């Protein structure tokens, strides 16, 4: 009987050790430098607030961490969209002036692999910016570093909150360099295929209510001019 | 006794790793895709939006009664000619399968009407519509890009308004029909040695 009890205690300790090793895995990639920061291409930059209360509209299944905004917005409770959120935000240019409207749809991805430090979200943006035109961004985002460095500390905190400075790129694909695929449809961007990276700067996060103070940024690299062959 | 404890630790680690590997962290609910083969090639799929019950948002500076109640659309001048609507979308069996946004804007170089459809279990479609509807009130657009299942598809999407005929109090006033025609892009395929 003693051996059985020790085996069970050992198994519980082993599972806890595994969980700790997973959470503090030093080999989990934390990409803080965007490949687009070293590109020679011209870039378009849009900023937005990922805080639901500061959005134009934010909705989800109504049971998630982030509360829908406005309160009476239609919620996404049907099974096929229960793990999806939809957000409309005002976009700002690099100088903070209003630049356009962005709509983002995000769904938890079946390619999530916690063993591989991948907490994946499949997301798409539709952006209309009068000075540029309209464009579509398709990306997979990896929130593992965010969960490890912000979400888990907030959950563990006695006040269920985290304060500090966290900055990271969340875009993880589908591009080979971990960039998002961008297609332009109108205006100056018509017919252009581009790359983008989305990043987050978080200053306060609540394990109960989600983002409290944060900024999002989309960096879109325009195609580099073709060089004529000699 | 200590050996038994150590064996338990190893078993615990193995069980936790095995459970994480075997059980997916995310499992999206799927509705069966209702796709028909088109007579001239490609496939056809129809979606619709019941109005007003599937409308999540109507945003625009000219809107008198915003949806949802309490919506504060930006009053910035740069967005004066932009109108954006967000919906739930349904398949031919009237089951909700995704969400969509339709954005319309007036521009000096030609008006813009875009659709972005997002089906969580499948992927997303981005469609740029013609500015003017054709005969019969059908507006046709080109699939500009897609994600995941739709990444390698081209084709077109038609939208039209179908007024409701039911007199039931709960019946929709009508519906927006979206008829997508998908054509696979020709991708070069490497020949396998086995085929020689």
Summarize the structure.
The complex is a heterodimer of chains A (230) and B (196). Chain A has 230 residues and is of the alpha+beta class. Chain A has two helices and eleven strands.
Keywords:
heterodimer, A: 230 residues, alpha+beta, 2 helices, 11 strands, globular, B: 196 residues, mainly beta, 10-stranded antiparallel beta sheet
Structure in words:
The complex is a heterodimer of chains A (230) and B (196). Chain A is an alpha+beta fold and 230 residues long. Helix content of chain A is 15%, strand content 40%. Chain A has helices at residues 2-23, 144-156, and strands at residues 43-48, 57-59, 84-92, 98-108, 120-129, 133-142, 161-169, 171-173, 180-184, 193-206, 210-221. In chain A, strands 1, 2, 3, 4, 5, 6, 7, 8, 9, 10 and 11 form an 11-stranded antiparallel beta sheet that branches. The longest helix of chain A has 22 residues, at 2-23. Chain A is globular. The termini of chain A are far apart. Chain B is built from 1 helix and 10 strands; from the N terminus they run αββββββββββ. With 196 residues, chain B is mainly beta. Chain B starts with a helix and ends in a 12-residue tail after the last strand. Chain B is extended. In chain B, a hairpin with a 3-residue loop joins strand 6 (112-119) and strand 7 (123-129). Chain B has one helix at 2-22; strands at 35-37, 43-51, 55-60, 82-90, 96-105, 112-119, 123-129, 139-148, 153-163, 174-184. The mean pLDDT of chain B is 88. Chains A and B meet through helix 1, strand 3, strand 4, strand 5 and strand 6 of A and helix 1, strand 3, strand 4, strand 5 and strand 6 of B.
Produce the secondary structure layout.
The complex is a heterodimer of chains A (230) and B (196).
Chain A: H1 2-23, E1 43-48, E2 57-59, E3 84-92, E4 98-108, E5 120-129, E6 133-142, H2 144-156, E7 161-169, E8 171-173, E9 180-184, E10 193-206, E11 210-221
Chain B: H1 2-22, E1 35-37, E2 43-51, E3 55-60, E4 82-90, E5 96-105, E6 112-119, E7 123-129, E8 139-148, E9 153-163, E10 174-184
Antiparallel strand pairs in B: 1-2, 2-10, 3-4, 4-5, 5-6, 6-7, 7-8, 8-9, 9-10
